[in-house]
UniProtKB/TrEMBL annotation:
This is Prostaglandin reductase 2. It comes from Phascolarctos cinereus (Koala). Belongs to the NADP-dependent oxidoreductase L4BD family. InterPro entries: ADH-like_C (IPR013149), ADH_N_2 (IPR041694), GroES-like_sf (IPR011032), MDR_fam (IPR045010), NAD(P)-bd_dom_sf (IPR036291), PTGR2 (IPR037399). The gene is LOC110208345. Functions as 15-oxo-prostaglandin 13-reductase and acts on 15-keto-PGE1, 15-keto-PGE2, 15-keto-PGE1-alpha and 15-keto-PGE2-alpha with highest activity towards 15-keto-PGE2. Overexpression represses transcriptional activity of PPARG and inhibits adipocyte differentiation. The keyword Transmembrane helix does not apply. Monomer. It holds the Pfam family ADH_zinc_N.
């Protein structure tokens, strides 16, 4: 069986900006027969994610995350439908997902590496299992619950950076659902700002590419910042930290502004900013969603319930075709997405 796949064509270099040409589409033959325990699945949706910037390097900086190898098929979050099965858990027509789905139009997968997808949980939107009703929703929800110290009635102001992206757009909404009285987003275009406020219920949004973020932030957070959901790091985060209150909390989710410059996912802060954390007793502990797998099942149910009740709005940017995986990744890293960046591989 002949299928298409995407391999790593070249590395941008630790300090380079990834481009679509770092990826290459080619054809390959899959075996016709399955071994015991295997399934053949057709790929429906694939995810491109910010953490993949680290996998393009020949060293990721994270022990449990392996770098992608040149000319080998790439992998990440995926959803597909089983076409043939030699595994007792799976039958033709089942929807399945995996964090390590190969970037192929069809794939032969070990049945015991797959998780079941119940389309009902997302009202049939299968791509949501890569975003809001999947790892991105869990990252936002569990990040807030584990590190946010949010309590209803405490009049807390939440600031979210990368606010119009997959995690950020959910984190702001979840912060509100968990009890924050004011929610402010920081993102990279006026269109994104307008969507945050008019569709996703943020109180205010700041375009960090325009004007003075510190001044704008002071205007829209008159009582200072109590919780900061940090997706980006760098100058934006330094600016937010300078306006954080005594005993406030940072949810250290990601540092995307640093991924093209650093080999570590959580680079050290400027000494001046570090000293603000100490003086104001601000917590800033790294959050890793994969360390909280015991809470995934209940988390997915919570996200699904909020979505179905209309309390959690979901935004996606969808690009079609396996050959566009590289285009989608380049666009994500440059801010081309609103909500979760998805690639639709087949219907
Ligand atoms: P997003 O959907 O948020 O997409 C990335 C966004 O980052 C872009 O749309 C862009 O939006 C913004 N961005 C890009 N470069 C910069 C920059 N230099 N400065 C500021 N913003 C920038 O991606 P994800 O939701 O997949 O990831 C968001 C963060 O969450 C990442 O840091 C990722 O590593 C982290 N993450 C952490 C997890 C964990 O377990 N801790 C799990 C999953 C993700 P804009 O137009 O606003 O610039």
């Amino acid at each position: 069986m002949r299928v298409q796949r995407v391999v790593l064509n070249s590395r941008p270099g630790i300090h380079g900006t990834p481009v679509a040409e770092n990826f290459r589409t080619e054809e390959v033959d899959l075996p016709d027969k399955l071994n015991a325990g295997q399934v053949k699945a057709r790929t429906l949706y694939l995810s491109v994610d910010a953490y993949m910037r680290l996998r393009i390097n020949d060293y990721t900086g994270i022990d449990f995350m392996k770098p992608w190898q040149l000319s080998e098929v790439l992998d990440g979050g995926g959803v597909g439908i089983v076409e043939e099965s030699q595994h007792t858990n799976w039958a033709k027509g089942n929807y399945v997902t995996s964090f390590n789905w190969p970037w192929q139009t069809k794939a032969i997968l070990e049945g015991n590496t797959l998780e079941k997808v119940d389309p009902q949980l997302a009202d049939g939107h299968l791509s949501y299992f890569l975003g809001a009703i999947g790892i991105m929703g869990l990252t936002s929800l569990l990040g807030i619950k584990e590190k946010g110290h949010i309590s209803t009635g405490s009049n807390q102001t939440l600031v979210v950076s990368g606010a119009a992206g997959a995690c950020g757009s959910l984190a702001g909404q979840i912060g509100r659902l968990e009890g924050c009285s004011r929610v402010v987003g920081i993102c990279g275009t006026d269109e994104k700002c307008s969507i945050l406020v008019s569709e996703l219920g943020f109180d205010a949004a700041i375009n960090y590419k325009k004007g003075n973020v510190a001044e704008e932030l002071r205007k829209v957070c008159p009582s200072g910042v109590d919780v900061y959901f940090d997706n980006v790091g760098g100058d934006i985060s330094d600016t937010v930290i300078r306006q954080m209150n005594q005993n406030s909390h940072i949810i250290l989710c990601g540092q995307i502004s640093q991924y093209n410059d650093n080999m570590t996912p959580f680079p050290t802060l400027l000494p001046e900013v570090e000293s603000i954390l100490k003086t104001k007793n601000i917590t800033r502990e790294a959050f890793g969603v994969l360390e909280h797998k015991d809470k995934f099942e209940s988390g997915i149910l919570q996200l699904s319930q909020w979505f179905k009740e209309g309390k959690l709005k979901v935004r996606e940017t969808v690009i079609n075709g396996l050959e566009n995986m590289g285009v989608a990744f380049e666009s994500l890293m440059k801010g081309g997405n609103i909500g979760k960046q998805i690639v639709r591989i087949s219907e």
